[in-house]
Amino acid sequence: MTVTVRTARRSDADAMGRVHVESWQAAYVGIVSQTHLDGLDSNQRAENWREAISATPNPTHGRRLVAELSGEVVGIALVVPDRSGTDATGEIPILYVHPTAWGAGVGYALLAECEAELVRRGFESGLLWVLADNERARRFYERQGWTADGGEQRDSIGGIELTEVRYRKALR
């Protein structure tokens, strides 16, 4: 099966909401509170995506991506300038793949397009944050040449304090 990565459209919002929520519900079991995961609403997340795409369909500061497998949206990603304001660094704050598509190359295709987009936008390096306990994601990024740089931040998700680790990759 061929993975196709393209810019997200407003009509993708329902699928994006489903991918966003169901990937969290599978990937974060045992990391994030089960009550929080059970309370995630794909319809609300879809509405958030619809509003964001409607407000800025082609954001000059970033790009929303979807990955399709056999014509179905099974992955989502977002590429933006580093939110801390570093001019030479771009960021990938969102990259999620629906669990039914894990192992099918969707994550690799999405990440490759994110990296290519960062290069097209003139960034010299990229960064992303991963929950420290998300070993699957950490191994995935490390296989693609991303390295934990020692940066950490705390985040409260579902009332639980979690640690995120920062990964970087030189793009040029």
Write the layout of secondary structure elements.
Layout: E1 3-7, H1 13-27, H2 34-39, H3 42-55, E2 63-69, E3 72-81, E4 89-97, H4 106-120, E5 125-131, H5 135-143, E6 147-157, E7 160-170
Parallel strand pairs: 4-5
Antiparallel strand pairs: 1-2, 2-3, 3-4, 5-7, 6-7
Helix pairs in contact: 1-3
Word description of this protein:
The protein is of the alpha+beta class and 172 residues long. Helices cover 34% and strands 35% of the residues. The chain has helices spanning 13-27, 34-39, 42-55, 106-120, 135-143; strands spanning 3-7, 63-69, 72-81, 89-97, 125-131, 147-157, 160-170. The protein has a seven-stranded mixed sheet with strand order 1-2-3-4-5-7-6. α1 packs across α3 (42-55). The longest helix is centred in the N-terminal third of the chain and has 15 residues, at 13-27. It is globular and about 40 Å long. The two termini are 30 Å apart. The mean pLDDT is 93.
Question: What low-confidence regions span 5 or more consecutive residues with pLDDT below 50?
Answer: none
Structural class: alpha+beta
Number of strands: 7
Number of helices: 5
- The strand line-up of the biggest sheet is 1-2-3-4-5-7-6
Strand composition percent:
25-35%
**What spatial form do the alpha-carbon principal axes imply?**
globular
N-end to C-end Cα span: 30 Å
Could you tell me the mean pLDDT? 93
Quaternary status = single chain
Rg, Cα atoms, Å = 15 Å
Fraction in helix: 25-40%
